[in-house]
Design brief:
This is Pyridoxal kinase. One of its GO terms (biological process) is pyridoxal 5'-phosphate salvage. Its EC number is 2.7.1.35. It catalyses: pyridoxine + ATP = pyridoxine 5'-phosphate + ADP + H(+); pyridoxal + ATP = pyridoxal 5'-phosphate + ADP + H(+); pyridoxamine + ATP = pyridoxamine 5'-phosphate + ADP + H(+). By secondary structure, this protein is α/β, with parallel strands linked by helices. The protein has one domain: UDP-N-acetylmuramoyl-L-alanine:D-glutamate ligase. It is about 40% helix and about 20% strand. The strands form two sheets. The chain has a ten-stranded mixed beta sheet, with helices on both faces. The longest helix has 27 residues. It is globular, with a radius of gyration of 19 Å.
Length: about 300
């Protein structure tokens, strides 16, 4: 009999498009996971558009939602996934909830996507960083920072592969068994030809590190990190093998963005799709084609392979 996996996902939501919970829910459900969603923000669309409208969840509202689950005894989870949490008070409440859930179920897997910023800048208040580092990090079983976020969490400047491995080891020492750097390229490269993903696992005294080189596609996608974190959760659970899980998660994301880019390029040729100022397809045509990529989620396939470096 298959295990009954149930995920509590706390991250952003958009009415139109695919970021946050909209990127994570469908892939997890497709792969057999029940998903309960709490939206840290509810926006009309992602913030890459000229404007957006919406609301941010307060810590009190999050507590009210969780209390409803708890009082009805439906707060039983095998996994927790968290992403964009925009305020100190909300993040501190997430710390409390994850702590309680892990106490109730010590085998619960917590996947922390520490959404703080990218390309050298924060898009959350600086006061959030120590809460991620000191509050959520010690609770995480898997963490999926990008290059900038790993620098923030490790308090290191990361330029070389050696820097990457040392920063990941810093997070292992803080109690995180699996650290996945979702995107790395040599600083200063304007248009990198490839993005490198690193995964590091430490169980007891044994450490394994995997490197995955991914061809870069020249387009501005949004929600791919949220999709990747969800796929990593699913495939680590299903395979219990870091290398295989990373290969399958990367294959899914590559399949989705290639289908999306093809769609956007076709739209660019007709009257509905006008090029942006940078010569790329406009924002709305680059929304992830998740539903149309269902086969890439169910049966990911790619020639991209992970290389064991430790």
């Amino acid at each position: 009999m298959a295990r009954d996996y149930r995920v509590l996902s706390i991250q952003s939501h958009v009415v139109s498009g695919y970021v946050g919970n909209k990127s994570a829910c469908f892939p997890l459900q497709t792969l057999g996971f029940e998903v309960d969603l709490i939206n840290s923000v509810q926006f009309s669309n992602h913030t890459g558009y000229p404007l957006f409208r919406g609301q941010t969840l307060s810590a009190e509202e999050l507590q009210e939602l969780y209390d409803g689950l708890k009082l009805n005894r439906i707060n039983k989870y095998s996994h927790v996934l968290t992403g964009y949490i925009p305020s100190d008070s909300l993040l501190l409440k997430v710390v409390d909830i994850v702590t309680e859930l892990k106490q109730a179920n010590p085998s619960l897997m917590y996947v922390l996507d520490p959404v703080m910023g990218d390309d050298g800048r924060l898009y959350v208040p600086a006061s959030v960083v120590p809460i991620f580092r000191d509050g959520l990090l010690p609770l995480a079983d898997v963490i999926t920072p990008n290059h900038f976020e790993l620098e923030q969490l490790s308090a290191r400047t990361i330029i070389t592969e050696t820097d990457v491995l040392e920063a990941m080891e810093d997070l292992h020492k803080k109690g995180v068994p699996i650290v996945i750097l979702t995107s790395f390229h040599t600083p200063g490269e304007a248009k990198p030809k490839e993005i490198i993903l690193y995964g590091s696992s430490r169980k007891g005294g044994a450490r394994t590190a995997i490197k995955v080189e991914i061809p870069a596609l020249e387009a501005k996608f949004t929600g791919t990190g949220d999709l990747l974190a969800a796929c990593i959760l699913a495939w680590i659970t299903r395979t219990n093998n870091l290398k295989e899980a990373l290969e399958k998660a990367v294959a899914t994301v590559q399949g989705v963005i290639q289908r999306t880019f093809k769609y956007a390029s076709e739209k660019e040729k007709d009257k509905e799709g006008k090029e942006g100022e940078d010569g790329l397809p406009p924002t709305h045509t680059l929304e992830l084609r998740l539903v149309q990529s269902k086969e890439h989620i169910e049966n990911p396939h790619s020639d991209i392979r992970g290389l064991k470096i430790i």
